[in-house]
Amino acid sequence: MPFPRPPVVRPHGVPFARGLAAHGDRVALITPQETLSYRRLAERVAATAERLGPVRRLVLLAGANRADALVIHLAALSAGHPVLLVPGDSDSTIRSLTTAYDPDVVARPGADGSWDLDERRRASSHTLHPDLALLLSTSGSTGSPKLVRLSHQNLQANAQSIATYLGIRDTDRAATTLPPHYCYGLSVIHSHLLRGAGLILTERSVSDTAFWEEFRRARGTSLAGVPYTFDLLDRVGFEGMRLPHLRRVTQAGGRLAPERVARYAELGRRSGWEMFVMYGQTEATARMAYLPPQLATERPEAVGVPIPGGSFRLQPVDDQDDPEIGELVYSGPNVMLGYAENPADLGLGRTVRELHTGDLARRAPDGLYEIVGRRSRFAKIAGLRIDPQRVEALLERHGVTAYCAGDGDALALAVLGAPGAIGEEAADSDRLRRLVAAECGLPARAIRVRVLAELPRLGTGKPDYAAVRRLTRPAPEEAAGAPAGDLCRLYAGILDRTDVTEDSSFASLGGDSLSYVEMSLRLEEALGGLPTDWHTKPIRELRALAAPVNGRTRAPESPRLRRVRSTRSWHTRPWNTRRSLETGIALRAVGIVLIVASHIPVFSLQGSAHVLIGVAGFNFARFHLDWGERRERLRHLWRSIARVVVPSVAWISCAVALTGLYDPANALLLNSLLDQGTERHEWHYWFVEALVYFLVVLAVLMSVPRLDRLERRYTFGVPLALLMVGLIGRYDLPEVAPARFHLGPTVVFWLFALGWAAARATTVRQRSLLTAVLLLTMPGLFHDQPLRTALVAAGLTLLIWVPTLPSLGPLNRVAGVLASSSLYIYLTHFQVYPHFGEDFPLSALFASLVIGIGYAAVATRVVRWL
């Protein structure tokens, strides 16, 4: 049954969105795929506006710096449809705001990456005020139902004002370095479109080399950034870049330290561009003040003067002793209509005439305004306005008592007691940091956590937030960075990352089981000992573990110092230095030696490959699931899969071509699926196939948001349930096992799930349960091979119960090399040892290990380059 045709209501529309065609054939959008003129952009906007229809409807748009998303945004603004703009990469925010406001149209990416229009109804179910044009969140990407209502006049006036004081010309081209659901990023788009200037649409970070290639190729003239953007610019060597067309750099979204403002202003003076420091809030559409660039070096601490068309006044504050300080109140045509907290508020007109910013300010004798503090507890960090009370409530829901306060460019958290529990999981500072970061949309580096035996209170019993800020700040020796700088360089070198900070952890930087071994051994050399969960701890916390040497903290050695030390006489080295070795590393090292030796055979002691299946599940939990948001977790997982598949397929393909022993199915890692028969050589690579199958299937499952949330909530329960499912395959109830029963992926998956569960087991009861399942189900897996059964049971029991083993420094180094090369030794040894015949088994073993280690060195570098 067709929808009844509703009555036509002629909307106002935003003038700059309706006048795009007036700029003719000037370049409007530059994307990696195409360059779009204003004429062509206007045609696409008009076509989309026609589809939206003449009757006003509420359009929820998942914003992104993509042409399709921008076309929908402009079409809605031009036709008068109010837009609820939300983060395009946050499914939870889209769901929560869709539930809260019941939009009439939902525009979000489809399966092919283009934006789809889901027209839920032909007419709006809401009463929409004629002036309403845009709805933005007041708190970044947290999904709060409290929204800012902006009018057509707000958008036009603010874009006009910004274009005026920045001097935007139609020859300018600005890069979209900020997301469009953030008012600052959106203001860059609006102000440039108003003047017929070009937009370089990109979703790349300024830390990406490809971003600067796009920027130069498009002759970019304007860069916008929040304080964190400038941290990245410092890291990528922005000061030395040649950007001949750059005209201006703008900064807003939080306070940038005055000395950095002055430094960038001076850099701009030398390089031929201007530095604009700006101040604003979503409630003022975007901007309220700017600091004229000629004053940035002299007055970098000031926010400047009101934007054209706006004005400030200072309202006295009762608890403020200085009469020159008051709350900054702004007036202008860009002040919002008011807030919306539910759909009924969408029909309201103007409820706000001037904006009480909540900032305490003074007006200096030169007429410039300076922000001196906050009247409320809201904090603006990394461009997002954060409510500390909301953070405290979030942690309370997870069983954590904490005080939270903004402190400049960081969020300070004082947590009661030893790291407690979040749900059923042991929580440490890094886990709390990631939890808050995911909720608030902040980078983890912007959150400081300190665990205290007692939370600080004032004499009245109220929280002492000044003490929270003070207690969470790093000590002077910590701030100096010794040895944090060396640790950061160590992480950057091994993981090939350029974005390492003191708040980075091995897990957050994308470390996996292939790089874990080298990192753990190098850290143990540097720090003298490591906790079992070091891979989740930030560098800041690991630094405190550094062993004192002559009263000073020992820093990790530089590569040069390590090379010098390695040339010293052997008798000067501490060969008897006692160390510990992680059980997983020990099992990988011993296991690969036993596998190769049993295949030659030097002796026959089989079962190690099945132990390594369990170790693989253990490492999967530690290195692939300790991540923040779902998409980043999946990207990390698929990269790790590639690091297994690429060298495996390359080597096995050569073996297929040169030996004639293998079927092409082996090269494609399909032998287990096609069940090629019982020939022993056809099954040489069953372990690699099983590992890849498990990782791929789990990556697909984790891409489902509901399953991803389920795993995060029940970290032990999910792998335990998969273990139970795996036992169905263990006993081959569906009768799909291959001819070589104990090598089939469906048969051995339960070992992988058991290793995963072992990594998540935190109590004696949980470990006992896993041990009981192991001992009850191992018998019968290998027919008439009790020694093989016992070896697997012993190895996995060790993995469940014993996190580290006593060791020596030299043993650690040998184990580290073997463990990190174990996959490559497994791949290559089948083609190495037959050349030695049966007369030289030890030589065959040695050669197999050496060649595998060599292939590991080559493959690791090639895959990293790829």
From TrEMBL:
<keyword id="KW-1133">Transmembrane helix</keyword>
<dbReference type="InterPro" id="IPR042099">
    <property type="entry name" value="ANL_N_sf"/>
</dbReference>
<dbReference type="Pfam" id="PF01757">
    <property type="entry name" value="Acyl_transf_3"/>
</dbReference>
<keyword id="KW-0812">Transmembrane</keyword>
<feature type="domain" description="Carrier">
    <location>
        <begin position="478"/>
        <end position="553"/>
    </location>
</feature>
<feature type="transmembrane region" description="Helical">
    <location>
        <begin position="766"/>
        <end position="783"/>
    </location>
</feature>
<dbReference type="Pfam" id="PF00550">
    <property type="entry name" value="PP-binding"/>
</dbReference>
<dbReference type="GO" id="GO:0016878">
    <property type="term" value="F:acid-thiol ligase activity"/>
</dbReference>
<feature type="transmembrane region" description="Helical">
    <location>
        <begin position="640"/>
        <end position="663"/>
    </location>
</feature>
<feature type="transmembrane region" description="Helical">
    <location>
        <begin position="789"/>
        <end position="808"/>
    </location>
</feature>
<dbReference type="InterPro" id="IPR050237">
    <property type="entry name" value="ATP-dep_AMP-bd_enzyme"/>
</dbReference>
<dbReference type="InterPro" id="IPR009081">
    <property type="entry name" value="PP-bd_ACP"/>
</dbReference>
<feature type="transmembrane region" description="Helical">
    <location>
        <begin position="739"/>
        <end position="759"/>
    </location>
</feature>
<protein>
    <submittedName>
        <fullName>AMP-dependent synthetase</fullName>
    </submittedName>
</protein>
<feature type="transmembrane region" description="Helical">
    <location>
        <begin position="842"/>
        <end position="863"/>
    </location>
</feature>
<dbReference type="InterPro" id="IPR036736">
    <property type="entry name" value="ACP-like_sf"/>
</dbReference>
<feature type="transmembrane region" description="Helical">
    <location>
        <begin position="815"/>
        <end position="836"/>
    </location>
</feature>
<dbReference type="Pfam" id="PF00501">
    <property type="entry name" value="AMP-binding"/>
</dbReference>
<feature type="transmembrane region" description="Helical">
    <location>
        <begin position="683"/>
        <end position="702"/>
    </location>
</feature>
<feature type="transmembrane region" description="Helical">
    <location>
        <begin position="714"/>
        <end position="733"/>
    </location>
</feature>
<dbReference type="InterPro" id="IPR000873">
    <property type="entry name" value="AMP-dep_synth/lig_dom"/>
</dbReference>
<keyword id="KW-0472">Membrane</keyword>
<dbReference type="InterPro" id="IPR045851">
    <property type="entry name" value="AMP-bd_C_sf"/>
</dbReference>
<dbReference type="GO" id="GO:0016747">
    <property type="term" value="F:acyltransferase activity, transferring groups other than amino-acyl groups"/>
</dbReference>
<dbReference type="InterPro" id="IPR002656">
    <property type="entry name" value="Acyl_transf_3_dom"/>
</dbReference>
